[in-house]
């Protein structure tokens, strides 16, 4: 039996891509029930080949016992196009068809998140209010712009 091709989807993340792999269906049945590849082989191996401007790079072989699983490829250049192809093999079956190439652009470097921006703005507002309160107290005490009493002739 020939294994593959697996179904591959990729999404971008900051300086990385997330690869979701769905094992190919098997055509074997047991008592009318369609068996999965993990039912047949238990543990399967998969290889991911990553293609970019630098050429093709085979990632180390990994094991899986799940029908659908994800892996993250990190330390990529931001805003660069990457393509992946996946091969699934079993210890007793080396006949395979690789997945078609699937491409995506890696996300830009991680910037400040929404919550950090809100906290920064709230902090700036609090500091501004404290400065205004201190200046108001100093003014009321007469240290800034003291009230000068005018001579009676000018009143």
UniProtKB/TrEMBL annotation:
User: What GO molecular function terms would the record report?
Assistant: interleukin-22 receptor activity
Q: Sorted alphabetically, which Gene3D superfamilies does this protein's record hold? A: Immunoglobulins (2.60.40.10)
Q: InterPro entries annotated for this entry?
A: FN3_dom (IPR003961), FN3_sf (IPR036116), Ig-like_fold (IPR013783), Interferon/interleukin_rcp_dom (IPR015373), Type-II_Cytokine-TF_Rcpt (IPR050650)
Domain (Fibronectin type-III): residue spans on this chain: 2-109
User: What single Pfam family name could you report for this chain, choosing any that match?
Assistant: Interfer-bind
- Write out the GO cellular component annotations: plasma membrane
Can you name this protein?
Answer: INRA2 protein
What organism is this sequence from? Bombycilla garrulus (Bohemian waxwing)
Tell me the organism's taxonomic lineage. Eukaryota, Metazoa, Chordata, Craniata, Vertebrata
